[in-house]
Prior knowledge:
By secondary structure, the protein is an alpha/beta fold. It has 10 helices and 9 strands. It has one domain (4-62, 102-252): Phosphatidylinositol (PI) phosphodiesterase (TIM Barrel, Alpha-Beta Barrel). The radius of gyration is 17 Å and the shape is globular.
Amino acid sequence: MMPLAEFVRTRRRFVVAHRGASAVAPENTLAAITSAIAVGVPMVEIDVQLTRDGHAVLFHDRTIGRTTSGRGRTHRLTYTELARLDAGEWFDESFRGERVPLLAEALRLLARHQTYASIEIKPATSRDDIRWRVERIAVVVAECEMVEHVLFTSFDHTSLQILREILPACHTAAINIPGDRRLPSEITRPIGCEAFVCSLAECTRWRITDAVASGLYVGVYTVNTPRQLQRVLRYPVTAIVSNHPASILQLLGTSEGIV
């Protein structure tokens, strides 16, 4: 697999599976990642948090009730406690028994299939040590030999600054914080990001024009319908993030996730 920097330089745009193929399988599970790989996307986006005992796991919410059989806060559970929970039946009975995976498991699966990862580092709680959280995630990525094949993103821009101190060669993208009216260049320049990510609603001409003029790659989430895709395609957006990657690939007329 070529380094991510080289891949992005040689592609006009590509599709990213949001939390895996989360429209057809439970989000942030190995099943969702496998489904995304099967349709040919070159990159899969996953959310990463830490358990109470310091394990990096794939999980979006701060509480576990929406996507598992348990209750409580993610960061207050050990990995052993979290791993006992069912993370699939809430989506569909056919996914009963699906578990919350470790980040390392997900990265090894992606590496085997020559697929890039976009890791969203979730914001820390007020009691978390942000540096410790970022260090734990960085260690896993380095141990899996995936630094050159991962894009790190976050709404917590401090996390990205710390990450670049720990892994100077890493690739980072700042996600626009809702309500932040600064230009992408103003947001990314102080923290050294090479990319900017915004929501579909925030995908406006003045933002995209500034980002491209500043040499930034742009990602937009979440693009799920033909109408939404048409809107995004008006701009030179690099990454199209979707819960329905197969549908978006079909609309783009490609089976490779790259156009």
